[in-house]
């Protein structure tokens, strides 16, 4: 399958934002990993370096530490933040000016050095915005920042039992805002009416696992299954597909921990490439390819391949066409064929004691990777893999880079940055 054909297949098989209030255009990045949850964009060119500061278009200070990735719809940039002890969300314009800010109630700070109370990224369908926080606060707003509804999932359905900070982001379907809570007990997948916040359905998702195996920080993906919306969920050693209409399981795939290893927590989310779900597991040491489709238990029929010793623990892979790009925590880069799991080529980011917690972006033939110490590395992808630049932003960076119409958005602990498109003059 050619890259263009594979990209077209991906675009129609993955519908991470359903039938939206408006279709996301080239100036939109409506959720954490983009329009089709691939962490990549197929068009446009982006800056290959800005270490001298000349290509930084603007810097906008943030009121508190957050690790969520900004999302974009047209002329607005949305980002979750703590604001004076409350869970908040802010909207910026493309000049870095604040459009509005809203608050959702008392915040709960992070406990990991690379965590925060605002780890999950917001999601928008162009009409509504949904945000989730470590406090359990889950809220729906309109595009002007008016809070339409809010609820606290922990007070309503049970306490947070994760060892570390909540990481899963909400997703949207045609009718609902959907959130997954996967933890030691009381795990569930739930859908809420976008406008009213009324719960539409809630299904339990509990499996027996070795210690920490049922702790998940991953984000679901919305796909099409037999012409209808469905929600793909990874965690608790199961890959499951649920009907978007009622949450019922369509198919499930197991066999990810036959040796019953302890502490195989799931942090990196899966990615879909050319009809194959690439699943990271085994604390960064294993990958599996699972073919989309089927009904019931598809463990024996739809698992295509397994790779050992070559995976990712924290950064979620990116996909473009039939290629999947793995950024390992210590900077190794591997390109896999999603149909076979075979390595096409590999490379390496500059060696450093700091790790990669941010998930990589693939844009314009390059990989953009933010290291935890605040250095954003740009590398040319391919068999001739080459590091093009190392750009020190001067503050910790955990959020993923966002590409929009030639510009890049970077979120740090203290500020939001906009990197100019190639040829664009950055103001002083």
Can you give keywords for this protein?
3 helices; disordered N terminus; 34 strands; five-stranded mixed β-sheet; mainly beta; globular; 428 residues; Methylamine Dehydrogenase, Chain H
What is the CATH architecture term? 7 Propeller
- Proportion of β residues? 35-45%
Gross geometry: globular
Task: Report the mean per-residue pLDDT as an integer.
Answer: 92
CATH topology: Methylamine Dehydrogenase, Chain H
Quickly count the domains.
1
Treating each run of at least 4 consecutive H or I residues as one helix, how many helices? 3
Largest sheet: 5 strands, mixed
Q: Report the C-alpha radius of gyration, rounded.
A: 20 Å
Description:
With 428 residues, the protein is mostly beta strands. It has one domain: YVTN repeat-like/Quinoprotein amine dehydrogenase (Methylamine Dehydrogenase, Chain H, 7 Propeller). Helix content is 5%, strand content 41%. The protein contains three helices and 34 strands. The strands form eight sheets. A five-stranded mixed β-sheet has the order 1-28-29-30-31, with no helix packed on it. Strands 15-16-17-18-22 form a five-stranded mixed β-sheet. The protein has a four-stranded antiparallel β-sheet with strand order 2-34-33-32, with no helix packed on it. β19 and β20 form a beta hairpin. It is globular and about 55 Å long. The termini are far apart. The N terminus is likely disordered.
């Amino acid at each position: 399958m050619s890259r263009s054909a594979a990209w077209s297949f991906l675009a129609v098989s993955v519908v991470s934002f359903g039938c939206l209030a408006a279709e996301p255009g080239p100036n939109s990045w409506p959720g954490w990993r983009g329009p089709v949850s691939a962490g990549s964009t197929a068009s446009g060119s982006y800056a290959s370096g800005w270490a001298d500061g000349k290509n930084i278009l603007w810097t906008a200070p943030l009121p508190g530490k957050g690790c969520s990735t900004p999302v974009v719809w047209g002329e607005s940039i949305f980002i979750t933040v703590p604001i004076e002890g409350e869970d908040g969300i802010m909207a910026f314009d493309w000049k870095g000016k604040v459009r509005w800010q809203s608050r959702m109630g008392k915040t709960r700070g992070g406990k990991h050095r690379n965590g925060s109370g605002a780890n999950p990224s917001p999601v928008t369908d162009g009409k509504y915005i949904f945000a989730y926080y470590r406090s359990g606060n889950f809220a729906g707003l309109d595009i002007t920042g008016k809070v339409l509804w809010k609820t606290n999932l922990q007070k309503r359905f049970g306490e947070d039992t994760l060892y570390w900070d909540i990481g899963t982001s909400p997703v949207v379907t045609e009718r609902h805002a959907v959130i997954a809570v996967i933890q030691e007990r009381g795990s569930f997948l739930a859908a809420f009416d976008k406008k009213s916040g009324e719960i539409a359905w809630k299904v339990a998702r509990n499996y027996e696992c070795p210690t920490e195996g049922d702790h998940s920080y991953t984000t679901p993906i919305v796909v099409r299954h037999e012409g209808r919306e469905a929600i793909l969920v990874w965690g608790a050693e199961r890959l499951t597909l649920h009907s978007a209409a009622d949450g019922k399981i369509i198919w499930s795939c197991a066999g990810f921990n036959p040796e019953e290893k302890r502490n195989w927590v799931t942090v990196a989310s899966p990615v879909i490439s050319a009809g194959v779900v690439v699943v990271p597991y085994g604390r960064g040491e294993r990958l599996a390819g699972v073919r989309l489709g089927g009904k019931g238990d598809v463990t024996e029929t739809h698992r295509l391949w397994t790779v050992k010793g070559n995976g990712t623990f924290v950064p979620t892979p990116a996909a473009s066409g039939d290629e999947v790009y793995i950024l390992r925590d210590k900077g190794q880069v591997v390109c896999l064929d999603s149909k076979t799991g075979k390595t096409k080529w590999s490379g390496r980011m500059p060696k450093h004691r700091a790790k990669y917690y941010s998930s990589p972006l693939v844009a314009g033939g390059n990989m953009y990777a933010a290291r935890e110490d605040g250095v954003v590395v740009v590398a040319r992808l391919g068999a001739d893999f080459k590091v093009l630049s190392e750009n020190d932003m001067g503050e910790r960076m955990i959020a993923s880079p966002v590409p929009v119409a030639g510009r890049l958005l970077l979120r740090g602990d203290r500020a939001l940055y906009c990197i100019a498109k190639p040829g664009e003059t950055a103001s002083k």
